[in-house]
Amino acid sequence: xxxxxxxxxxxxxxxxAAAAADALPELGPAPAxxxxxxxxxxxxxxGLRGKVVAVAFFYxxxxxxxxxxxxxxxxVQDALGPDFGSKISFVAITLDPEHDTPEVLKDYAQAxxxxxxxxxxxxxxxxxxxxxxxxxxxxAAKNAEGFVDxxxxxxxxxxxxxxxxQYLGMRFDPDEFRRDLLSLVKKP
Length: 188
Description:
The protein is α+β, with helices and mostly antiparallel strands. The protein has one domain: Glutaredoxin, CATH 3.40.30. The protein has six helices and eleven strands. Strand 3 and strand 4 (42-44) form a beta hairpin. The longest helix is centred in the middle third of the chain and has 15 residues, at 65-79.
């Protein structure tokens, strides 16, 4: 289920105008970021222009929801076929930059069989990561045990850098997510 976007349901014949109404709305320019990848290369949103980008937040020591989200995204990655990497990229931004070094991120990516031809696992300074996290609407705070309490927000950014939809939580439908990504690849 998508949230953060208003949808209207109508019982009518699908016309070209109705089909256009089903298109993902533009929520505004996606928050920019400039971080470091698992390969110690700089990655920024502007450098990904021309591709549809899924932006997710996680951390490698997460004991519960992050591995589930990562596995769901790997399944979507596999279902995208040749569009993944060439027309669609995934960005996973750590919520724990103090622990998640590029080496730790690379090991995590390999453990989940993430295709690094189209996926960047990103980290940076605590201040920079915290700012990106906040601007994407993610809550994250370390608790007394050292884990990061956080919500899940997975965003889709179109090839022009416009934020199109944000999925909240774990229960989003991977097939709908894949269709949303592909619908933006097919836009002129």
